[in-house]
Amino acid sequence: MEYPPRKHHRLRREPTIPDGAVACESARRKGMMRELKGLGTPIYKHAEHERDLANYELLEGDLLEKYPSRANQDKRKQNMVHFDIDPPNIFIGGLELDRAGRGLWRNTRSEAKAKANGASTEPDKSTEKATDKATEKATDKATDKAPEKTTKGAVKDTAEKDGASSKDKGGKTNPLRVIHGQQNRNPTEEMGAFACSSTQECIRQAKRNVYYLNRRWKAKHGFHAPKEQFGPEWDKIPDRPHGPELVESNIAANYRSHTNVWGIAWTMWILITKYYPPTPPQPQPPYDLPVADPRLTDEAIELSGRSHVISYCPFFLDPANTDYDYVDIRLRQTISQCMSHDPGWRPSLKHLEYQATQIVRNAAFLGETDEYVRRWVHYWLYEAPSTSGPGGPTGTSGKAKGFGGGGGGAPVNKLEENLASKKDPDHPIRIQLQIQYNASFPYGHDRIPNAAVNLDCGFRALVDSIQAQIGPNPLIGGVPTAIVLPRNGDLRTIYNNPKAAGEFDVLVLLNEANEDEESNYFLSELSLVLVRWGESVGLSLQLCYILEGRGRPMREPVEDQNPRNLWIYNDNAMDLAGASYNHYEGIRARPRPASPAGGAGTGVKEGADPDDLPDYESD
């Protein structure tokens, strides 16, 4: 964005031969050079024209966004900011198929259709050949150019001949088509919506407050940049439309290339997670710091930002979340850095380009031939299966079909992993749950006693925990949403329906081997009830529990990715009347403890004995 594409770049102009021009080689051979120059007849060099034409066809459609030479950087530098960088405005170029690619694409498609229909997987050679000829004939007619022969006699395929032309019938460029990328083996991402002046402009310097204030709202909901467009710094700006405070600020309204980096990072985050950005943005403290209270205030963010980086990138570096471990850790770290609260911590576009180039050059893509990469790109971009969460496009089994991609695929079977974690207090799942528990209950928890009749303490525990941990107005999709809290009868109704259908039979078999969970209700049953209730109100929930005497917390896994944890307490099956029963209780977060004796807010006067009993109010 600092060096936007030049509309009249010399390489954009198609080389043409002037009317009446004579080839230099022909004129020299016939001894007519002096006469032609005297008559003013244009003379051109055929070899140079062919070279320029080949370069033009190679770069046709390219935005030519390479960094300019050092001598021209100051002259060409512009402060262009695009306030609408999101996935719908990202075009991917460089995916055009050559002749071999079209054949491979048709074969793959035919095999998939044949498998679905139970027919033979042998592609139709005659149809394939006829389609190839028809495509080339139509393309040649549309471009009004014959296939150009290279020095080796091979047919030179251009992007237009592969059916990916970016031009309409009239020959004018259609901005709604895919923008062709740089001419290399990797797909190129290009920005769209440049014609919309309300979202993209060159920010001017030394303007009044109202100029920068009017650009504060320019972004989609959920994509506003911190510090530049929101943050505590704006509260310190006086209400003076014609004042100079914003132009003198290096934080609020500091719209520069780092604002574009913020939008690019959110786009990458969305493409990986398949989620919308959290609204409002949630600051993520460094996970290696002993943070007692994860709910960062504006003051805490400002103070923390002086010693370490505060990012708004959730999930990617969270040690309690392994759903995105299949993504290269360097990419996740870079995306997190691009979402830093302080724009000064975000990398520049030039640094990002250099970093990506170095990683691609130095990476050892073992076993990944060009053919493998081509098939991988065709599959995921043209026939990607549907998905409901992180881990890349997945099928019903949760594993990617066909290709694993660079770094693996979906996580291992949750049921087997969860059973192993119940036997090992130091299992990674238990450690992750302990981290999540510490974040949800920074000062510990208090149990909510209940005396439910008919051994319904499990339902009562769910009701109490939902009221204490979720409340009537939880955030759903980043928006506070009013929900109806459940009662015992509501959960029992949810329980009776699947029980009558036999859905709990398999849960009984799974739990028979675990004597610690033999009880009035299995935890697996309570988990299913909780999940069904959560689905009814739009919440993705997972049951986590503290089992007395078993160390770190445990969980009942669910299929959803990144569910919200609901915590309950289990007394670990006490003996009652010759049978083993569990008693469940809900839990609530313990409030922040009072300050030390003699400190502010304790009610203890300075110099007084902190061990003295407090006086009654009546005294």
Automatic annotation (TrEMBL):
Composition bias, Basic and acidic residues: 122-171
Acidic residues bias spans: 609-619
Region (Disordered), start-end ranges: 1-22, 110-186, 588-619
Comp. bias (Basic residues): 1-12
Coiled-coil residue windows: none
InterPro entries: Kinase-like_dom_sf
Highest taxon, organism lineage: Eukaryota
Name of the protein described by the UniProt record: Uu.00g131040.m01.CDS01
Biological source species: Anthostomella pinea
Higher taxonomy: Eukaryota, Fungi, Dikarya, Ascomycota, Pezizomycotina
